[in-house]
């Protein structure tokens, strides 16, 4: 799996058999996944660095809270629900590229005048 495709890591584990070719093995795996979906119908619980991983470094709990707060703010932002988000992003990117080009041309003009 490409790292860029991972968006979150859950604390739920499903053990995979070594060989998925037999039909019985695949059926057992399907039942395991269905059981997980039944237990967590809304969303899978995320892996908590303090509770699940036992990371007790100074400031980690504060960083986890800050991250959670920022994610909530991101979800609540009006642009997050905007159906034209990709279009707006492209326009913003184009605007930034144009601003960089203007800055470059001004620099060239200034150097040509001296």
Outline the structure in words.
Helices cover 55% and strands 0% of the residues. It is mainly α. The chain starts with 22 loop residues before the first helix and ends with a helix. The mean pLDDT is 91.
Observed structural traits:
114 residues; mainly alpha
Count of individual beta strands = 0
User: What string gives the helices and strands in order?
Assistant: HHH
Low-pLDDT runs of 5+ residues are none
User: What is the count of helical runs?
Assistant: 3
Write the layout of secondary structure elements.
Blueprint: H1 23-39, H2 60-76, H3 85-113
Please summarize what this structure is.
With 114 residues, this protein is an all-alpha fold. The chain contains 3 helices and no strands.
């Amino acid at each position: 799996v490409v790292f860029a495709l991972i968006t979150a890591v859950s604390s739920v584990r499903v053990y995979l058999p070594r060989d998925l070719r037999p039909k019985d093995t695949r059926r057992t795996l399907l039942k395991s996944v269905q059981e997980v979906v039944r237990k967590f119908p809304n969303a899978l619980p995320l892996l908590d660095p303090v509770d699940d991983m036992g990371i007790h470094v100074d400031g980690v709990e504060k960083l986890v809270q800050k991250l959670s707060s920022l994610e909530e703010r991101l979800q609540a932002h009006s642009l997050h629900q905007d159906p034209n988000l990709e279009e707006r992003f492209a326009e913003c990117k184009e605007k930034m590229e144009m601003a960089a080009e203007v800055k470059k041309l001004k620099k060239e003009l200034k150097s040509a005048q001296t």
